[in-house]
Amino acid sequence: MDFSSLVTAMPGLVSGMMLTLKLLVLAIVGGVALGTLLALARLSHNKLLSNLAGFYVNYFRSIPLLLVITWFYFVVPFIIGWLTGTNEPIGAFYSCLVAFMMFEAAYYCEIVRAGIQSISRGQVNAAYALGMTYSQTMRLVILPQAFRKMTPLLLQQSIILFQDTSLVYAVGLMDFLNSARSAGDIVGELHQFLLFAGLVYFIISFGASTLVKRLQKRLTV
Amino acid sequence: MTPMLEVNAVSVRYPDRAVIESLSFSLASGQIGCLLGHSGCGKTTMLRAIAGFETPAAGEIRIDGEVVASASTMLPPEARRIGMVFQDYALFPHLNVTDNIGFGLRALSAAERTARIGEMLALVGLEDECRRFPHELSGGQQQRVALARALATRPRLMLLDEPFSNLDAELRERLGLEVRDILKAAGTTAILVTHDQHEAFAVADVVGVMVDGQIRQWASPYSLYHQPVDRHVANFIGEGVLLPGVVNASAQIEFELGRFDGPTPAHCGVDGCRVDVLVRPDDVQHDDASPVRATVLARAFRGAEFLYTLALPSGQKVLSLVPSHHNHAVGEEIGIRLELEHAVAYVRE
């Protein structure tokens, strides 16, 4: 096999990977933040709040991610334009980012909710007895412990997200897979580029997954 | 002077049943009280109501004169300025000893906070462990951290929920005295909940024996032991049996074990009245010369003494505490003598 065309295409592949990673990191941060708020809403005593959050989670877990991505790409710019009166396109990157954040938040929410529920009621009571308010109790006692317990699960979900970022192909965003595919098309060696892309996805996902398992063992001991 | 804690006719009801019915008691400033009872008697519910984790259906709770719970008021726990030590300590596992103790002190400046943590560490003797995390401490140390954390905020009232139940039996009494010393040194009013009377006696100035959501007797450990108000308290506190007897014409109580010549309690009535008298193991003495014989049913070696369970000829059981050089086998017959100081008697219905 001749790898010289891979070497030539490397700068394009690297910038594709940078886009994938940028999308991934921002989507994780936003998804976990939104997921945490959703989890707090789901656990709230306020029936309306908890039902709304429950509906959100069930809705996003029941539709395909590809649909969400395309929906946001076509519909969100339209809504924003209609609301603001301008006709500025928000672009594929940001529409994808919002789609990933909102979609993944539904999954992160369930992980965070289980994490919060795994902290014993006694911890909450102890914080209240020490004069803490609800938000202080959450911020200083419950969430730090819950996140420590949830880290492996959140990372595992994020590895799935890493693979799912390749779906941005549908709206023409040049992520790693799309860059590899288009470079392969141009030089006429598509199979070689796709094999290479597959190898890279495998190494990163499997490597990360192994690290997460090791972390999980260390946290449970 | 206003009591530090006043519980006035408090009832707590769960949907299916009343847990506490019209319970009242009070604690003076600096006093350590204890609610003692079997599990399910409502003692923990009462404590949770004082803390604010449970809403009374009726009655009023005051801390330092301030109404914290009543028909019209329900202060949340964080506004009651109480300290609480939980059964499982509920230390924050992600924080070290220093941060656990300083947790409730967020309103203080950094310097004041450090100073207060230092005082608390010295009070509970954990200066050397201040950088450790809860899982690196022994059960007794964890408990002292929990105590220091609760005391650090200078609570008006300290609540302790079965604080020794996770400790070894031998540690309990020692730590009970230690906790008492720490609370007394801090001058804190406290209320303890437990099912273990040794714990209650070691820690508290005044103990309430709880049965079915009511306090049967609210008294010092000494009075509870020597003057239990009813059969239940008599059976619950200390060891002993209720020995049936009859009041004779000269107002003395006659037992199978002999006659009690001391003053017969007034409520026991006269000639022919049937009573049950509380007989503690130390009231029944070993005496080879005594005409009263009893058979050894069981024996428990306690080092200096044997606790013998004896059967009188009628089959009535009594307990006897005997110096351990009197070593008798099960089934052996021994002589015993009743040595009652005073009679605690209940009329038979």
TrEMBL record, chain A:
This is Amino acid ABC transporter permease. It comes from the Bacteria. It is a multi-pass membrane protein. The lineage of its organism: Bacteria, Pseudomonadati, Pseudomonadota, Betaproteobacteria, Neisseriales. CDD domains: TM_PBP2. Coiled coil: none annotated. Belongs to the binding-protein-dependent transport system permease family. HisMQ subfamily. Its main location: membrane. Residues 17-212 form the ABC transmembrane type-1 domain. InterPro entries: AA_ABC_transptr_permease_3TM, ArtM/GltK/GlnP/TcyL/YhdX-like, MetI-like, MetI-like_sf. Keywords: Cell membrane, Membrane, Transmembrane, Transmembrane helix, Transport.
